[in-house]
Each structure stands twice: as structure tokens, then as C-alpha cells.
Amino acid sequence: MVVPLNTWVLISNFKLAYNLLRRPDGTFNRHLAEFLDRKVPANAKPVDGIFSFDVVIDRGTSLLSRIYRLTDGEPSQPNMAELEKPVSSEVVPVIIFFHGGSFAHSSANSAIYDTLCRRLVGICKAVVVSVNYRRAPENRYPCAYDDGWTALKWVNSRTWLESKKDSKVHIYLAGDSSGGNIAHHVALRAVESGIDILGNILLNPMFAGQERTESEKRLDGKYFVTLQDRDWYWRAFLPEGADRDHPACNPFGPKGKNLKGVKFPKSLVVVAGLDLIQDWQLAYVEGLKKAGQVVKLLYLEQATIGFYLLPNNNHFHTVMDEISKFVSSNC
Amino acid sequence: MVPYDSDGLAGSAPSSSSSITKPPQIDGLLAGAGYKVPSSELRHVAQRLERLETAMLNSASHQLSLLASDAVLYNPSDLSTWVDSLLSELNQSQPLPSLPSDLSDLVPNSTALDSSWGMEHSLSQQQNQNISQHQQNQLMVVTALEEDSAIRLVHMLMTCAESVQRGELALAASLIENMQGLLTRVNTGCGIGKVAGYFINALSRRIFAPAGSISGVGSCYTYENELLYHHYYEACPYLKFAHFTANQAILEAFEGHDCVHVVDFNLMHGLQWPALIQALALRPGGPPLLRLTGIGPPSSDGRDSLREIGLRLADLARSVNVRFAFRGVAAARLEDVKPWMLQVNPKEAVAVNSIMQLHKLLASDPTRNPAIDIVLNWIRNLNLKIMTAVEQEADHNQSGFLDRFTEALYYYSTMFDSLEACAHHPEKVLAEMYIQREICNVVSCEGSARVERHEPLAKWRTRLTGAGFRPLHLGSNAFKQASMLLTLFSSEGYSVEENEGCLTLGWHSRPLIAASAWQAVPDVEPALGVIDNNGVVL
Known about the structure:
The complex is a heterodimer of chains A (331) and B (538).
Chain A: H1 5-21, H2 30-36, E1 50-58, E2 63-70, E3 93-98, H3 111-124, E4 127-131, H4 143-156, E5 170-176, H5 178-193, E6 199-203, H6 214-219, H7 227-237, E7 267-272, H8 278-290, E8 295-300, H9 314-328
Parallel strand pairs in A: 3-4, 3-5, 5-6, 6-7, 7-8
Antiparallel strand pairs in A: 1-2, 2-4
Helix pairs in contact in A: 4-5
Chain B: H1 28-32, H2 42-58, H3 61-70, H4 79-93, H5 128-138, H6 144-166, H7 169-183, H8 191-208, H9 217-220, H10 223-235, H11 238-253, E1 259-264, H12 273-281, E2 289-296, H13 305-319, E3 324-330, E4 349-355, H14 371-380, E5 384-392, H15 401-421, H16 428-444, H17 457-466, E6 469-472, H18 476-486, E7 494-499, E8 502-507, E9 510-520, E10 530-532, E11 535-537
Parallel strand pairs in B: 1-2, 1-4, 2-3, 4-5
Antiparallel strand pairs in B: 5-9, 6-9, 7-8, 8-9, 10-11
Helix pairs in contact in B: 2-4, 6-7, 6-8, 6-15, 7-8, 8-15, 8-16, 10-16, 11-12, 11-18, 15-16
Subcellular location (chain A): Nucleus
GO molecular function, one term (chain A): hydrolase activity
Domain Alpha/beta hydrolase fold-3 (chain A): 95-308
């Protein structure tokens, strides 16, 4: 099996650039990372019917989110007061998106994630809120989860995001890689505080454990990712001295939480067959099932990490279809 | 190694028909990710990436660390060049090359500048946490009524601008009255209320001022304007970033030259130059002879302010043993300057420095050659080593009034927002007045009076490359130092971004000013015809 050339170039470029950014002593070359990251500004002028704008959700932590919406047919730029115009349909899904980057890389305004979020808007006819959460190693656990929680509360309290049908915000949590991990933990907090989440979408979510699984040993270094770099990112995110059985990375491990009887949202979990951490992702799915939760696993045997960044392969289209069904089935 | 699709066509943009004049087709999907790679080069880039991986695996980890911290990297969007420059760096640091010798010439390494060179400007130390808490407390709880009024205000502003565009001035005038009434119900101390106030003011000038009474040029150059400029300089980082980044580029361009000449298109108080003088003083090998030509308006009060500033700078230069000569050129407008006034010496390396000046040349007079073309042309022929240009990153020169107005509303809201979040500067209101003048000019002036004709980086790139310039990329060292400069300011909302070899400074991920550097493309005299890659075209 073969990866399309431009995808290969994209992901290899990331891999090699990231090698330069991780220092052996656990620090991160943030200046170089920001220099290299390709970013795009928000654009209030609709492109393909979608416009975006940035909002400060929390001034104390400078927490920004980029909001993507469909225009209601107007090709011109909405004026500033119209950016937060109330959504006009009976049911409008609002997807809170957490970008990937292994907790250390990328931002809400990274070009790859701006593109992905725009696709999600188009496919799901949703409003997408992409959270610019604080990253490791400068900000360890639980900062990213705290920021996700802040964003969730903010979204839940926007009257302009309420669906007309029931005057409530129809919220989904989504994320890829570390973003998938964040989505899980934010959902956990939501159930503890009574905010309704309609569904979780986890794309190649980032989980781990202390033990070395078969897929980790078999696929180490084979498809862009090494165990060594995975370990580095967990050491950068987890509290100092914690091991990989910490519930943040191993939610159904020895220190994990039992979700039996908990009103956890239904989950769509996408696992790439060439991702070395798939055993942990599959264990996550098992953990949800054992706790009686609703979970759909989409296992793509021939997919590598990052396959969803460019629409040039079948896996991409399969996943987008599944996501759109997942989000619309809640009407 | 992950195998990739070797025919390279899956998912890439269709290849273009062969044509001498067409630019190479860029892979559309990678472009969406921020990378410019011609489709035809994908395979080549993939191979270089494989080589790079091998080179990195063969390097010791300390070599990689050195590469990451010291190498100056440029324009990550140009993936091919970027990969090759990394390969060169690794090749340089390895005692025995493990790669075949068909690598291109080593990219010259810019020496990492001694980042301890002092800054003349006083950068005050802010207490980050206290201020942001203070700001939080200051943000009033916006009542439903107030929020409503603010939204209505924006709606009305847009309607008013629209009626102005359509020439319905009576309607516009009545809207102004309504808006002024609404203003009383909104907090005009901060946020949308404050910005709306300025825009209402600018609109009413446009509507109520008799034609011709709004003069752009004369009013700009007064002592008052210099004062406002100074406070704008102190209150927020935009001008400091501009000076800092330009100086960095000029310093690098002047390496190895003993006689250098800086032409400053708008001297003002000469705030940019002490830092450059000090950096040149500390230059390994000793400072060059520095000539500075400062352009500025003639003083209205009889003082020769250009000369005064020149004398102060000369004192500073003397104190750090830099041979220095200053010349002032008084001109009401930049297009009145003629190259002979600058007295450029053929043996000098010349740097032209334009901080927010080039856009003023864009007002087009149909009876004459465009001023911008005239000026760019003589700049090119000045023995130019580098031109540093900093411009507002905004599209304020659109022909449609409503489009211009909308863009300005977004732009200046962001700028005011950033100003609000900055630590409390005693005369912040004066900095705001400086910005207000810009708003007035964009909104209420027309023709030659409208000098604030900001255009975005993309347009300047096209214009400058069309005028015979090519970019000198600003690198990761300039980026890092600019980022570090920003951390001296209280607010976390500022961000420096790299944009294909240029640097932008923005607030909350909206770029507000863009800094770029250029050199002149030498003229090629065709003999028989133009020779290009495919042969000779007559």
C-alpha cells in the first residue's frame, strides 16, 4: 500500500521539522516551532460559503478560538455585528474541535487545521469552534483540558448558537491525535457537571500506557512515528514524575475511571491501521464498550496518521461520510 | 521508509500545459496546507526529504540541537529550498559528508547577531499578571441593553457607509445623528463603543465637511503629529517591531561594507537609529562609516528639526566611536524627493528604509505618471543593497467606499483592542489620537488628500516584483528576536508570524503590520532576445 506523494511530503516534512523542535532535555524550541508553522488568518469574507473569525474566550489565559460558520447565502462579508448572528436552522450542530499536534505542536490558526475545520462545516452543516488550547511542555496537564472545559462552557452559554428546535446548543466534541484525547477528557468533565454532549468524534486519538503493546513494537518508526517521540510528548504533557498509566493518557488503565452507568456521549473513534498506537486506541474503544457506552469504531487498515489532512484518499472520504452521519443522526 | 505513490499524480493538481510564460503549477493540496511546491517538483522534494532524514539520523544529537538553535532558516513555505538549506547545514557540520557530492552550493550562513546589543528606546518592564487581572476587572459586565446598542451601532455604521457610497447624504446625515444618540448608551471607554465613536466622527467629517476643506497633506506634518507619533511609539509595539526588524535586515545587508548609507523616508524623531548605530559599533571588525539621510517635512515653526535630530544622533555616534554623517532632506511629500538630493556615493552600500511611507505614493493622478512607479524606479537605481519596507497589513485602498470602510472597521477594532490590553501607558489617549487620524484619512478623505492607502503584503509583493525588486527573506533569527521583544510587553495577545519570507506582527492572530526586505533585480540588456530556460525568445 502506498501513500499519495503530496501527503507523504507533508507528513515527512512535519516529522523532520518536529525532530528539530524536541530537545533531549524535554524542552521545546517554541520560537522555531512558531516560525515553521504555516498559519492563516481568520477570514470574515466567505470562501466557498464559509467564513471565520477569532474570539477571545478567556482573557486571563488569552484563550482564543476560531469560529467557522456558513453564510446564509450572502456572498459578501458579514459586518462585525453579524458575526455572532443567531443560527437560523431548527437544528445546528456545534462542533468544538481540538486540533492535534501531540499536545505540543500546531494552533487553531495552523493552515492544516483551518482547512480541516472548514471541511467539517461544509460536511456537517455545523458551526465549528476550534480551540487554541495551551500546549506542552510550557503548559502541562491539565491546562489543555481546562481550556477545553472553558471553551465548552462558553459554547454552551452562547444564545446565538442555540438551535431553534429546543433553544439549546447542540454540542459535539471532536479532535485528532491529542485533540481526540482532550475531547474525551472534556466529555468526562461535562457529564460530571450536567452539560449535554451529543457525541464525541475521535480521529486517531492519542492514548498510551506504561506497557509496550504489540502494535507499538511492530510499527515503531515504520510510518512517520516512533515510540521515542511518543514518549517525549507524554513526558512533556504529563505531570513531572508521572508514568504513562496516568489517567490522562490511559483512561481505562489501572488508574482509570469506571464509566459504567455514566451518561457519557456516544463516540465515533477512527483508528488508522498503520498507527503504532492503535492498540491503545482499540483498548479505549473496548473500555467504552465494557462500560456499556455507545461507540462506533472505524478501523482503516491501510491508513497512516494524518490521512484526514488532505482529501486525496478513500479513507478521507469514508471518514467524512461517517462523521456527517454521526452528527446528523441526532436530529 | 514509507513508500509513496511514485507516479506522483494521486491527489495532486493537474499538470499545466507547457508554456514559457506560465508559472509552474503549484500542488493545490499542499498550498492549502501553506506550502508552495510545484507539482512537477514533488518527487524531487520527496527524495530530498528522504536524504534529509538520512542526514539527520547520521547526525549526533548535539549537531541537531545546534542546527535547531543556530541555523538561520528562511521561508518555510518554499519547501524545496528549505529542505535543501537544512541539508547544507547538516553537511557543513559533518566532518565526512555521508551524502553524495551533487548537493548545491552551501547556503551562506548569516552570523547570529549578538543579541545583547542594547536598545536605545526605553522598554518599560510590565507586570504581566497584575495588568491582565486589572484588565479583567475593568471589563464591565455588558448588560443586555448595552450589547444590543453596540450591535445596533455597528449595523447603523454599515448602513451609513452604504448610503455614503450611494451618494444618499441626507440619509447618511440622519444616521449620524441617530448613532451619536446611541453612543450615549454605550460604553465609549473601551471596546466597540470607542471604535464606533471614531468611525462616526470620520463619517460625519466626510458628510458634513465642504469639499476640499479636508486637507491631508498640510495637516499631517505638524509638531502635534510628531507628538502623537511618539506616544503611539511608546504605547504599543508596532513601530518598535518595525524598527527592530528593519534594523536587523539592514545590519545583515551591511556586513562586509565599510561605507554605508541609510536613507530614511520619514525621520520623525529618528527613534529607529540609535539601535542601529550601537549595533554597528559592536560589529565584529569594527563599525563602518555611516551616513544617514533623513527625509522629513519642512518645519512649520522655523526650527530645523531634521538638523536637530541629526545632531543628537551624531552625538550618540561619537560616543560609541562610529564615524557618522547626517543630511536632512526637507520635502513636503515623498514624491518631491529627487535622487540627486540624497547624494549617494557609488562606493556606498545603500539601504532605503520606509516605515509606513510607500502607501502614501499610491494616490493616482491621471495626468501624471504614478508617483509610486517614479519613486520605486529611482530607488532601484540608487546602488541599492536593501530596501526595508513596513506597511499596515490591510486593504484600505479598495475603490469601493463600503469595502474600504468595512475593512477599516475590522482592522482598527483589532488595533484598538490591542492597545487596550497593553499596560497602562500614561498618555495612551494620545496614541489613540494618532490612530484616529489614520481612520479619518481612510474614511473621510479622497483623491490626493487620502494618503493612508494601505495595501496588504500580497499586493505589495506583486507591485514590488513587477517594479524590478526581489525579496530578501527575513529569517528565523529575526523571528525569534522579534518574538522575544514582544514578551517585554504585557499582553500575550501579540503574535509574530512568518509569511513567505516576511514577518508580520498581529493581535490575536490577525496580522496588523508586515515587514519585508527587498533588493533590486539588475537590468538585463537583451542582445538578440530574452534568454530563458527553454532557449531564446526573440
